[in-house]
Design goal:
The strands form two sheets. A 16-stranded antiparallel beta barrel has the order 2-4-5-6-7-8-9-12-13-14-15-18-19-20-21-22. It has a four-stranded mixed beta sheet with strand order 11-10-16-17, with no helix packed on it. The protein has three helices and 22 strands. The protein is α+β, with helices and mostly antiparallel strands. It is 16% helix and 47% strand.
Length: 450
């Protein structure tokens, strides 16, 4: 626009300075052209002023943006948003949870009454069912030892995902008093581990076990004799559905021609486990394996220094049935895996007459069906077993041969996270001698998770 105005002004001036046209035009034409020239010059002056004003405004805006950027850069970074669950400490999200559970149990033992403080009075321990004693009347026990709490953190450190978990309960270690006064229980470590991306270090459920298929029971474990069940310190690597670990070794030994237990603690190599989990719309299935060293060493007269190989496989699945129900199964077997299955119902190995270890074989499993009656009511029917392949020429006749149990329950959830349930179970333990003991138990519980 400015350029066109200048060109017009130049043309007008050229006309004024042309002698031929100056003499040819009259005074009126000259005045009109002078007026046109003055208007064009005024327009040019206005455009120049407007352009300068716009440039000044742009420079001021740029200056303000620079000041604003410098202020933002100098200010401390904004804190990350609060997590939807838990609370934040530094770069970590911290969560706390657990449950409080009260159990009311009435038990009948046909082979003798367990002593006060025996773990069998708190939960189903198949290897402790009394055998060979006098049948006593029903025993009633109340406790809250399954109460549990945990603390977990989750955050980023150096570009890596780092998490921790510490979990405690009161189940295994009674307190220093007794039921006469305060019924105390001692806090016990369940899990304590660190994860860095795909790595786990610390105490966790063994990688040989599939937790997701455990039945929904009132008892602490439920199908105790038939399930792989162990927590121990390990180093584990997980990538997608595959995981491998090295875990704390320990060997339990049956002395030659005896039925007692030696906890050897002489292993030099860790237990090695691997597991693969397949997840599909119909549910999930897993296959786990373990290879381990069994070792026992003594000193002095008749010293023993023996080791052998232990191995095992465990297959598990949880299959959807219909819209809401599911079937959960596990089958485990091998040689030298006694302490991993059935709460060490069988030992890992037995000593022969020359002091050499021989791995003990076993097979164990369970099946559990869960039925959802309504959103507030559900039931579970669970059967479990274990058979031990003892060498009768090496063991005492009081050695465990087999165990089995059957349980059914009905659980009501009147409020979110609040369960009230009742479970009736029957368990049996048999020795190599053929003697057996039975346990019948009614358990009622109230549990609130938080």
């Amino acid at each position: 626009m400015i350029r066109r105005t200048l060109m017009g002004a130049s043309a007008a001036l050229a006309l004024l300075t042309s002698p031929a046209i100056a003499f040819a035009q009259d005074a009126r034409t000259l005045e009109a052209r002078i007026a046109l020239l003055e208007a064009q010059l005024a327009e040019l002056r206005s455009e120049i002023v407007a352009s300068r004003t716009q440039q000044v405004a742009q420079q001021e805006a740029v200056s303000r943006d620079i000041i604003r950027i410098e202020q933002v850069a100098a200010a401390p970074p904004a804190p990350p948003p609060a997590p939807a669950d838990g609370f934040r400490i530094g770069n970590n999200t911290v969560k706390f949870g657990g449950f409080v559970k009260a159990d009311f149990m009435t038990s009948s033992y046909d082979g003798g009454d367990p002593a006060n403080g025996d773990l069998l009075r708190d939960f189903y321990l198949p290897g402790a069912i009394p055998v060979g004693g006098a049948d006593e009347s029903t025993a009633t026990d109340f406790n809250a030892r399954q109460t549990r709490f945990w603390l977990a953190t989750d955050g980023m450190l150096g570009g890596r995902k780092v998490a921790t978990r510490v979990e405690m309960d009161f189940q295994v270690l009674p307190g220093t008093g007794d039921q006469r006064t305060t019924s105390p229980s001692t806090l016990s470590l369940r899990r304590a581990f660190i994860t860095v991306d795909n790595w786990l270090f610390g105490q966790e459920w063994t990688n040989f076990q599939n937790l997701s298929v455990l039945p929904d029971t009132a008892d602490y474990i439920g199908p105790s004799e038939g399930t792989v069940f162990a927590r121990q310190v390990q180093a584990r690597y997980t990538r997608g559905p595959f995981s491998i670990s090295i875990e704390n070794p320990e060997t339990t030994v049956t002395p030659n021609l005896a039925a007692t237990r030696i906890i050897a603690d002489d292993n030099s190599l860790p237990d090695v486990t691997a597991r693969y989990v397949l997840t599909r719309p119909w549910g999930e299935a897993s296959l786990a394996g373990i290879v381990r060293q069994l070792a026992y060493e003594t000193t002095g007269a008749g010293a023993i220094d023996s080791s052998t190989l232990g191995w095992g496989l465990s297959a598990a699945a949880k299959v959807k049935v219909g819209e809401k129900d599911d079937l959960r199964v596990m089958l485990s077997g091998g040689e030298g895996i006694g302490r991993y299955v059935g709460l060490n119902f069988a030992n890992d190995a037995v000593l022969d007459a020359s002091g050499e270890l021989e791995a003990i074989g076993l097979i164990a499993g369970f099946a559990s069906y869960r039925h959802i009656w309504t959103p507030q009511w559900r039931s579970n029917l669970t059967w479990s077993f274990q058979d031990v392949d003892n060498d009768r020429s090496l063991i005492g006749l009081a050695t465990n041969k087999s165990a089995s149990s059957l349980r059914g329950n009905l659980i009501w959830t009147p409020l979110p996270a609040l369960d009230v349930g009742a479970e009736l179970m029957f368990g049996e333990r048999e020795l190599e001698s053929g003697a057996s003991g039975e346990l019948t138990r009614l358990q009622i519980f109230v549990k609130y998770g938080f």
